[in-house]
Amino acid sequence: MRLPPLNAVRAFEAVCRHGSILRAAGELNVVRGAVRQQIATLEGHFGRKLFARDGRRLVPTAEASAFAEASGAAFDILQRAACELEGVVPSCIRLGVPSAFAVWWLMPRVADMQTSLGDIVVDIVPMTVVEPLQMHPELDAVIMGGEYRPSAGISAVRFMEDEFGPVATPALAATLSDDPAAMGRLTMLASRSVPKLWDEWFVESGTPPVAFSRRQEFEDLLLALGAARSGLGIALAPRASIEDDLLRGQLVAPYGFISRPSGYSLCCRTPDAKRPGFAALHGWLRRCGKAS
After folding, report:
1. Domain presence at residue 100
2. Distance (Å, rounded) from C-alpha 176 to C-alpha 290?
3. For 52-81, how does the pLDDT look when each residue is reduced to its tens digit (9 = 90+)?
4. Could you tell me the CATH number of the domain that includes residue 130?
5. What is the distance between the alpha carbons of residues 163 and 92, in angstroms, rounded to a whole number?
6. 220-244 b/e with 16+ CB inside 10 Å = b?
7. Domain range spanning residue 129?
């Protein structure tokens, strides 16, 4: 089969990744009309529409989404192969990390990490909203917990168990009974960065959904956990993010924690997985994860 024009594929992949012709044009440093023309060229090549309109938004079809994901992986492979051919060795690993995980688990260990990795520099980029690596070409790897879903061209290596459960101050927890329905008297603290976390806990723990008297949302999990520490209500937390609070008695888990099947994974592009720097980073994460 004749391959489609690569410039058209590049523009199409950028539109799907950004969800916007304007943002794609900004990334490619062209005008919006040029991106639209490339999309039209690609649709002409395949003889089908690649997007449907939802108001002002362009929504890729299911087949187009799959093609965009494969295209992104292919471009990543080409870019890294070109760097190798030119003898360009990345000077550091830009690592995207969920904000709460970065603050409460990774940063207390960062000196040990740097000692262990030697000359390998890891640039830690906190992520308020945890998104797959293919959404972030500026990053080399990301750490993901229950959010991880397999993707073409991405290798994920698990390094630590992922447990989560409701947490509150000891004073608030003392007002609860053994029945999780008692949480309904408290304010449910939620994070817009992980909007389905409570729903997932109800399903995975086998607990009937609770009708809370009040719900308060925060922009990210760090703020929701800070509100829980202040006694505002009850939050759902990954254990790795509040281990110190549990040890100091600032927070307690009245209904314990349950394990998540996916655990925490280091996700990188498949060509990078066997590179010495990524292998060393994964080895360090595994050692610390087992000790946690």
Report:
1. yes
2. 33
3. 877 767 789 989 988 998 888 788 778 777
4. 3.40.190.10
5. 30
6. bbbbbbebbeeebbbbbbbbbbbbe
7. 92-157+262-291
